[in-house]
Write a structure and sequence with these properties.
The chain is α/β, with parallel strands linked by helices. It has one domain: Rossmann fold (3-Layer(aba) Sandwich), CATH 3.40.50. Helix content is 36%, strand content 17%. It contains seven helices and seven strands. A seven-stranded mixed beta sheet has the order 2-1-3-4-7-6-5. The two termini are 24 Å apart.
């Protein structure tokens, strides 16, 4: 990437970090990127009411290869199945993340093997690392000293948070065996107890606050 383009990207981020906009990643491969349609709007509302963010209530939808991605300091991604990034998608995502963006990937169930494969296109030199419970993302706004809360059963495994780091900065978070975004949905969608939804929303707010301040 040339210096002119780098300057453009960093300037773009400097402006848009103040806007507090978020988007959902509209990826290819056949996976249901559009699943959990009420999740992110509900998380935005919770964050605006409880941690004093000023996020646009309506999240955007952005493709990984689009320059529009640079409008959003925080991107959410979820789904159940296949994910595919073209070479152009992977390069654009890499530039976005190294330039200051943050990507939260929440496995809605069945995404794990596919997203791990595609992230190697974005960062072939890096591995997903499990975050310890002491990582500041678990206490950014609400304290979760044991790490991720368990929201849905899935395979009955413990919830895990994995990350990709650059010079100590967490720039991509992958949450597995928790299904936070199901917990963000309207109550009648999954009929989760209110205390379970609250845990999911509080942890989501932690991610929002961390991403905007990181």
């Amino acid at each position: 990437m040339n210096k002119v383009l780098l300057f453009f990207i960093f300037t773009f981020f400097a402006v848009n970090l103040q806007a507090q906009q978020v988007a959902v990643l509209k990826y290819g491969g056949g996976g249901d990127w559009y699943s959990n349609p009420t999740a992110v709007p509900n998380l935005i509302q919770f964050s605006n009411e409880n941690i004093k963010t000023s996020i646009d209530p309506q999240p955007g939808a952005v493709e990984p290869g689009s320059t529009d991605i640079f409008q959003y300091p925080l991107i959410f991604m979820t789904g159940h199945g296949n994910v595919f990034f073209s070479d152009e998608d992977a390069l654009n995502l890499r530039n976005y993340l190294l330039g200051g963006g943050f990507l939260h990937i929440d496995d809605n169930y069945g995404m794990n093997e596919f997203i791990r494969r595609e992230l190697k296109k974005v960062f072939p030199e890096k591995e997903l690392e499990e975050l310890p419970a002491s990582h500041p993302i678990f206490s950014a706004a609400f304290n979760y000293p044991n790490g991720l809360p368990k929201i849905h059963g899935h395979d009955g495994l413990r919830p895990q948070a994995f990350g990709i780091f650059e010079n100590g900065r967490l720039l991509c978070l992958f949450t597995f065996e928790t299904d936070l975004s199901d917990g963000w949905e309207d109550p009648q969608v999954h009929n989760d107890p209110e205390e379970v939804r609250l845990k999911a929303l509080q942890m989501g707010a932690n991610i929002v606050k961390f991403a905007f301040s990181n």
